[in-house]
TrEMBL record:
Native organism taxonomy: Bacteria, Pseudomonadati, Pseudomonadota, Gammaproteobacteria, Alteromonadales
Signal peptide: 1-31
InterPro entries cross-referenced by the UniProt entry: Beta-barrel_TonB, Beta-barrel_TonB_sf, Plug_dom, Plug_dom_sf, TonB-dep_rcpt-like
PROSITE patterns per UniProt: TONB_DEPENDENT_REC_3 (PS52016)
GO cellular component terms attached to this protein's record: cell outer membrane
Compartment list: Cell outer membrane
Family per similarity comment: Belongs to the TonB-dependent receptor family.
Protein name: TonB-dependent receptor family protein
Length: 858
């Protein structure tokens, strides 16, 4: 590792060749004095300003730069895990049993959802994932951000994270900040890495093979190719549910032990390829292109369906009698089958075995009558499967014309998630129901065209002001593909109270299928320069107009003042916005929700759908934000420290409503409004501009380098304090538990302290991760039954590497080496739904993970 590294990461070449078209206008011709400054620093960021790139220390806004070597010092191959340990106020959580959200891992920066952070690759806007995180752990409920786990670390030169509101510079989604993933651009050399690891419990075995190669494109260009292939076994942190254990004790031999698997999904055939190219036409023009092709298959579990009391499948609403259907449509001709009750060894009254009861046997003897117990006598646990396919391609030309630098580009991105459900039923089809279903697909597509210009200008006595301006056109579409008929159809027994569609994840029917699009244009101007030798001032203005809801104008002002050679102060103020995604405006789904420990079917509807509109749904509007930030930077020899405070006020914040019960007295009115079978819908949820919030926090980043133990040592700190308060919400569509989860669902305090030590061939990395108290919830249950305040925790990571040859390195390590246990469910809920830990934890509930890695560089 470099001895002069401010963040404990390898030195990098200047990144000024990366142009942020639609996100950044690169200035390639620097004034002589500015060039001299850049040559004296190692870390150059191309985000944070639409004008000249700046070093981390000289930036008027906080920026983190993490290079590929630092990212690799983590046992995970998931980009999200790599960044959590490096960036303050960046959080994520695992996703067990979370419907489509199992396919992605929502993240959040500075206490805001994943779609409030703009993601770029090589400075170009990255498309969103097609999956919407319906169960995103509070902050990310309903968020639709890009899936950054698709981007492999082997493809990256560095990651730049701007922790500051930047909508005026970059457009929608930049309320919390901007993340720019810079691809490798070497024209020679490469690497091959093989890693293998698993959890201490002996499951979750993960194998990753990745490689990178740089090739010359004649003498004037390069082609850099990166590829990764990964598989990961499922994990199980399950306990047998008491209801399932009781059924087994009463003689039901068709119940599995455990009845359900609660843990990470299985990931198969996870591959991704990134290609980055550039070609110098002449000294003043360069062609460039980059893109990716990725795919992965994911299989995860759902919750167990009890064969006695799962309403609208096995039982009527009261759970005391079986739901018995009649082939002739006359249910009164079938005998009522009560669930027998017995007293167990502890004196508790529990369900007996209905399968051996005389009323059930009498029902079986009647050829006109049936129950779903005949197909699944022990109940069933659906398995949710999905295939995610992701692709993108950008191409452009950049260069200089006189004193102007320009960058013109066009690109597209596509993400498609195809869903299927296994081991389930469509109860409304009766005994003729299939058990496996193809339920349809979501597809997100985006097209972007940019042209950007920048130059240095002089205004009066002010010389060498960096000026940038540009134009962007973008189109975004969200498409729902219809599932197979059996996954959504209302079968002949729907009118007898049997649930419609594949149970657990209803297929998309013809009423849900279709494609919705919108387009927008953006125009911006950005100017930045030194008003004196010590005072830097910048201003930006951006206008955007959307085809669906109108226009918006936002501004930003930033400044930095150097008090001494070692100490400087910085501040920023900006307005911002986030447009509702096309998916949030139009998505349709049926999910299983947990309320007071009970599973209910919740219909997710567009806010203008008749069902949603009946309970308060309205057309979505953009979020609006006002941000303030100020901080300080101290640099002295090998010591570097930044401290930044931020305050972000968001009005009209977009989120999913709580589950709103569909009441029996509303059935007739709902039918009149066009809602079919309202009696089979337990609750509805939809997107709404319900919230006004204020999020504030403090980020501290520091590092110190010295010689220690006859080697080079680097200490680095990343600490974040985040506090969110809900200033306003609508109690008709949002309950108090959801509000509390927004306010306290992530730890207010999170910190990472890393010690890196290196000798000639031997190196180690020791990292301590601190997670403060937080409001823990199980799935989306925010009632007292399923939530509590979780304790603070510390996890320790360790990696040891040895270079056998200059080009060959062996590494072993462990994340959470002391196997710190995640927060267990409180007494009274432990095991009730088959899990041991809360789903909302800030670190991996699976426990310690050990790994080995071999890296060859050529």
């Amino acid at each position: 590792m470099s001895n002069n590294n401010k963040f404990g990461i390898s030195s990098l070449s200047l990144a000024i060749s990366i142009a942020l078209a639609g996100s950044f206008a690169s200035t390639q011709v620097l004034a002589a004095e500015e060039q001299e400054k850049l040559e004296n620093v190692e870390k150059i960021a191309v985000i944070g300003s639409r004008s000249a790139p700046r070093s981390v220390g000289e930036s008027p806004v906080p920026i983190d730069i993490i290079d590929s070597e630092d990212l690799r010092k983590n046992g995970s191959t998931d980009m999200i895990d790599m960044l959590v340990t490096s960036v303050p106020s960046f959080n994520s959580r695992a996703q067990p049993i979370s419907d489509a959200a199992t396919l992605v891992r929502p993240v959040n920066l500075r206490g805001l959802p994943s779609d409030s952070t703009l993601v770029l690759v090589n400075g170009k806007r990255r498309h969103r994932a097609s999956v919407i995180a319906f169960q995103g752990g509070g902050i990310n409920d309903g968020a639709q951000g890009p899936d950054i786990s698709v981007i492999p670390g082997v493809a990256l030169k560095q990651v730049e994270v701007l922790r500051d509101g930047a909508s005026a510079q970059y457009g929608s989604d930049a309320i919390a900040g901007v993340m720019n993933f810079v691809l490798k651009d070497d024209a020679e050399g490469g690497s091959i890495t093989v890693s293998q690891g698993e959890y201490y419990k002996g499951d979750g075995a993960t194998t990753t093979i990745d490689g990178n190669i740089g090739l010359p494109l004649t003498d004037s260009g390069f082609v850099n190719i990166s590829a990764q292939y990964k598989t990961a076994d499922a994990t199980s942190r399950s306990v047998q549910r008491p209801d399932a254990a009781n059924l087994i004790a009463q003689g039901n031999t068709d119940v599995n032990d455990p009845a359900q698997v609660w843990g990470n999904p299985e990931i198969k055939d996870d591959y991704t390829v990134f290609v980055n190219t550039g070609f110098d036409i002449n000294e003043s023009a360069q062609l460039y292109a980059f893109g990716n092709l990725s795919s992965r298959d994911v299989v995860g579990g759902f919750y167990y369906r009890n064969p006695h009391n799962r309403g609208n499948v096995y039982s009527v609403d009261d759970g005391e009698t079986l739901l018995v259907g009649a082939l002739n449509g006359d249910q009164s001709s079938c005998n009522v089958v009560p669930i027998p009750k017995v007293t167990d060894a502890n004196g508790n009254i529990v369900d007996g075995n209905v399968l051996t009861s005389q009323p059930y046997l009498d029902m079986l003897a009647d050829p006109n009558c049936f129950s779903m117990n005949q197909i699944r006598p022990g109940g069933y646990t659906p398995q949710f499967a999905g295939t995610v396919e992701d692709s993108s391609f950008f191409a452009g030309i950049k260069g200089d014309i006189g004193e102007w630098s320009y960058d013109a580009s066009a690109g597209m991105g596509n993400n498609k998630s195809t869903f299927s459900l296994r081991n389930s039923l469509n109860p409304s089809l009766g005994l003729d129901t299939p058990t496996d279903f193809e339920t349809g697909a979501y597809e997100q597509s985006e097209t972007t065209v940019n042209i950007d210009f920048s130059r240095f200008i002089t205004i009066g006595a002010l010389e060498d002001l960096s000026f940038a301006t540009g134009f962007e056109w973008r189109e975004e579409s969200f498409e729902i593909t219809q599932g197979e008929e059996s996954s959504w159809i209302a079968g002949p027994y729907a009118d007898q109270g049997f649930n419609i569609g594949s149970h657990g994840f209803k297929g998309f029917g013809p009423e849900a299928a279709g494609k919705n699009s919108r387009n927008n244009i953006g125009i911006y101007a950005d100017v930045e320069g030194y008003l004196s030798d010590d005072w830097l001032l910048g201003a930006a203005l951006r206008y955007e107009d959307f085809s669906t809801f109108g226009d918006t104008l936002n501004y930003k002002i930033s400044t930095q003042y150097s008090a001494t050679d070692y100490l400087s102060f910085r501040a920023s103020h900006s307005t911002g916005f986030r447009a509702p995604t096309v998916g949030q405006e139009n998505v349709v789904n049926t999910q299983t929700s947990i309320v007071n420990g009970d599973l209910i079917q919740t219909f997710i509807a567009p806010p203008t759908n008749p069902l949603a509109a009946f309970y308060g749904g309205e057309v979505l509007n953009p979020e609006e934000s006002v941000s303030y930030a100020f901080g300080t930077v101290f640099e002295y020899e090998n010591f570097f420290l930044t401290l930044d405070y931020y305050n972000i006020e968001v009005t009209g914040r977009i989120a999913q409503s709580s589950q709103i019960a569909v009441e029996e007295e509303d059935y007739d009115d709902l039918r009149a409004a066009g809602v079919e079978h309202p009696e089979l819908i337990s609750a509805v949820t939809f997107y709404t501009n319900d919230f006004d919030t204020t999020t504030q926090g403090i980020d501290i980043v520091g590092s110190y380098e010295t010689e220690f133990l006859s080697g080079d040592a680097n200490l680095s700190l990343a600490y974040g304090w985040t506090d969110t308060s809900v200033d306003k919400y609508d109690p008709d569509t949002t309950d108090a538990g959801k509000v509390r989860r927004l306010e306290d669902g992530i730890p207010a305090h999170r910190g990472t302290l890393t010690w890196g030590q290196s000798w000639e061939r031997f190196s180690t990395t020791l990292r301590a991760n601190y997670f403060g108290e937080y409001y823990a919830t199980h799935a989306d249950d925010t009632t007292e039954w399923g939530s509590e305040v979780a304790d603070a925790a510390v996890t320790i990571d360790l990696e040891i590497s040895y270079a056998v040859l200059e080009s060959l390195t062996f590494s072993v390590g462990a994340n959470n080496i002391f196997d710190q246990e995640a927060q267990k469910l409180k007494d009274g809920t432990l095991g009730e739904l088959g899990g041991v830990y809360y789903e909302s934890g800030p670190f991996d509930y699976n426990g310690g993970f050990y790994y080995g890695r071999v890296n060859y560089i050529f």
